[in-house]
TrEMBL record:
Organism listed in the record: Ferrimonas balearica (strain DSM 9799 / CCM 4581 / KCTC 23876 / PAT)
Compartments where found: Cytoplasm
Principal location listed in the UniProt entry: cytoplasm
Matches recorded under InterPro entries: Depp_CoAkinase (IPR001977), P-loop_NTPase (IPR027417)
GO biological process, one term: coenzyme A biosynthetic process
Role, per record: Catalyzes the phosphorylation of the 3'-hydroxyl group of dephosphocoenzyme A to form coenzyme A.
Alphabetized UniProt keyword annotations: ATP-binding, Coenzyme A biosynthesis, Cytoplasm, Kinase, Nucleotide-binding, Transferase
Family: Belongs to the CoaE family.
A GO CC term assigned to this protein in UniProt: cytoplasm
Residues that, per the record, bind ATP: G13, S14, G15, K16, S17, Q18
Example of a GO MF term: ATP binding
Listed name of the protein: Dephospho-CoA kinase
Length: 207
């Protein structure tokens, strides 16, 4: 059972996966909202059946799995449909994230949620790390990674919390504007800080 839940978030292209991978290499349990979001709509799940009932079977791939690209296209510019989807999936994702964090071995768990600030989920964690990069780097990295033109990337960034909004809620900030090697000392410093915090909590509760 983890005594401490640490949240990790950042804008698109900020390098959240690079950071969470380094925490995982230190033995920290990583609970990733994107992975859970896929799990709650696997074939045979309530989530997938509800989506098919709402949108139709055209949302399915030939193998019966969800066509996530088509679903994103359907809801991206339709606020009512996006809200319907969020109301369906977010409670399931939130419940599963909390369960996995509570049951995680080790002294703390890392909850990775790309839209944590946008969805007000920072209340689920004890400390919040924001992975920070300038918006110009977000655009460049995302366009390169996803082979997406700049206009599409700008639309995604515009729908996310601003850099200043994320930083205002951060307990800790990881600067990922430099080379990947610069992440390691930042992650190690925070890892030791969270271990100390988790142990002090355990001592205070007598666990």
């Amino acid at each position: 059972m983890s005594d401490l839940i640490v949240g990790l978030t950042g804008g698109i292209g900020s390098g959240k996966s690079q950071v969470s991978d380094q925490f995982a290499q230190l033995g920290v349990t990583v609970v990733d909202a994107d992975i859970i979001a896929r799990d709650v709509v696997t074939p045979g799940s309530y989530g997938l059946q509800a989506i098919v009932d709402h949108f139709g079977e055209t949302l399915l791939n030939p193998d019966g799995t969800l066509n996530r690209a088509e679903l994103r296209r359907r809801v991206f510019n339709d606020e009512a449909e996006r809200q319907w989807l969020n109301n369906l999936t977010h409670p399931m994702i939130r419940t599963e994230m909390q369960r996995q964090c509570r049951e995680a071995p080790g002294e703390y768990a890392l909850m990775v949620v790309p839209l944590m600030v946008e969805n007000g989920l920072q209340a689920l964690v004890d400390r919040l790390i924001v992975v920070d990069v300038p918006e110009s780097q977000q655009r460049h990295r995302t366009a390169l990674r996803d082979q997406t033109d700049g206009n599409e990337v700008d639309k995604i960034i515009a729908r996310q919390a601003s850099r200043s909004e994320r930083l205002a809620l951060a307990d800790e900030v990881i600067d990922n504007s430099g080379p990947i090697e610069a992440l390691t000392p930042q992650v190690h410093r925070l890892h030791q800080k969270f271990l100390t915090l988790a142990r002090s909590r355990s001592s205070a509760t007598g666990v």
